[in-house]
Amino acid sequence: MRYLIIVAIAFLISCNNPANKKKVETNTVDSITTRLTNWNDLMTIRPRTHQSLTIKRLKSASETQIIQFWDSIAKKGAPMVEHCEDTSRIILSFLYRDKRDDLKVLIDIKNQNVDSCFGGDMILEHINKTDIWYKSFKIPKDWMASYRYIVTDNSTTKEYTDKYNDHLNPLGKETDYSYNSFEFVIDSAKVWYYERKGISKGSLTEFSIDSKILKNSRSVVVYKPHGYNVTIEYPVIVIFDQFLYLERVPLPTILDNLIADNKIPPCVAIMIDNQPKERRELELPLYKPFADFIAIELMPWVYKNFNITKDPNKSIVAGVSYGGLAASFIAYHHSNMFGNVLSQSGSYWRGKKVTDKIPWLSELYKSSSKLPLRFYLDCGLQETVMRNFGYLNFINRHRYFRDVLKSKNYEIYYQEFQSGHDWCGWRKTLPDGLIVLFNTMKQ
C-alpha cells in the first residue's frame, strides 16, 4: 500500500516537470498579426476549489511518505499540478511547509486577493499532524498568475515567496517585493522575457528631467540598442511606469531578444518614472498637463539628445493600466507625435474622476473624427476587481473601447489572456504588441 501511494503521488505531480511540457515553435510575424486581427471574445474561466487526489492520499500517508512527497516537490517544483478529466484544465495545488498548526496561511495572488473569483478560498488548509498546508483549484491550462504567501502566527504577519518555485518576479531576484510566477503552458512568448546568453545587449542610462508644467522632476531611463549609431534615426517607444517595465515586465530584455531575432528593428525606449503613488494617480489618468509635459518638454529633450525619428508612424506611446489609459489619451491630443498606441490592461473604465461611471476616453474617441493612429490592446479575462470606490470591470470596458475604435475604422490589434491584472500576462503579451506595431511601420 505504501508503495502504491508513493507511485501515485509521483505520477500525479510529474506533469509539473518542465521537461514534460510541450514547447511550441516561435510564431512568425504573419501568424501573430493574423491572430491579433481575428479575435473572438473569450470566456472568463475562474479558478474554483477542487479536490486533489494527491492531497487526499497524503492525509493517510506515513511520515516517510510525507518526506518523500516533499523531496519530489523539491525536484519537480511548485505549485503541484495534476491532470483531470477535462483536458483543457488542470488541478493546481498551492503548498506551504510548516509543522505548526496554529498559523493562518493566505495565498496572495497579485491583484486578485480581493477578487470574487477567489474570495475566502485563498486560505490554505492544514493536514493534521503533518507539515503540509495546501489549497487546490481547478483552473484553465493557460491560466497564469503571480503569487506569494502571507503567513500570520500569534504575533506577526509576514510575506514569503514559495521556496519550491524558482520562478521569481522580478526575474531571479529574492526581494521584499518579489512574487513567484506560475504558468503551466510553455510557449514561444516565454523566450522573449528571459535573458539570453550570446546576444548583444542594449544600454540603459538614467537622467533627471525637470518640468515647469508639472512643477516637479522625475527619473527617465533611456534604452539604446547595441551598436547605437548617431547617423541613424531610430524608432522610439515612450513608456510609463518605469519600475514596472524595468523589473516586472523587463522591457530591455524583451527588446534585446526581439532585435537579436530580427522581429523588430533597433529602437530607442524612453522609460518614464511616475512614482510615488499619489503622483501616478494624478498624472496618468486623463491629465492634460501631463500630456503637455510629454509633448512640450520631454520629447523636445529626447529629440535633442538622441537620434530618434520625428515620424509619428514610427513612434509608440505605451503603458499598462493607468499608463495604457494615458497612452491613449496622449495619442489623442498629440497624434502628430505618436501614431501608435500600445496599451496593456488600460483603465478604460475610468472617468475624469475615479468615481465616475462613464468611460470618458471611449466616449471622446466615439464622438470625434478618426485620427491617424493604430492600436495594440490586451487585457486579462479575470480583470474584475473590487476597490474601495466600487467594482471595476476592466475586460468589459476594454472590449467597449476596442469596439468604439473598430466602429471608427481604426487599425487595431487585440488579444485577451487568462489572468488578472498581473505582470505574468503583460510580460507575455508585450512582445506581440511590439512585433505587430513595428511590422506595420514597414507598410
Structure, described:
By secondary structure, this protein is of the alpha+beta class. It has two domains: 2-23 and 45-186, Immunoglobulins (Immunoglobulin-like), CATH 2.60.40.10; 191-441, 3-Layer(aba) Sandwich (Rossmann fold), CATH 3.40.50. The chain contains twelve helices and 20 strands. It has helices at residues 2-13, 29-37, 53-58, 63-76, 242-248, 251-260, 277-283, 288-305, 322-333, 360-366, 394-407, 423-441; strands spanning 48-49, 80-83, 89-97, 104-109, 125-126, 132-140, 144-152, 157-160, 168-169, 179-183, 203-211, 216-224, 236-239, 268-272, 315-320, 340-344, 374-380, 384-387, 390-393, 411-417. Strands 11-12-14-13-15-16-17-20 form an eight-stranded mixed β-sheet, with helices on both faces. Strands 1, 2, 3, 5 and 6 form a five-stranded antiparallel β-sheet that branches. Strands 4, 7, 8, 9 and 10 form a five-stranded antiparallel β-sheet that branches. Helix 2 (29-37) packs across helix 12 (423-441) and helix 6 packs across helix 12. The longest helix is centred in the C-terminal third of the chain and has 19 residues, at 423-441.
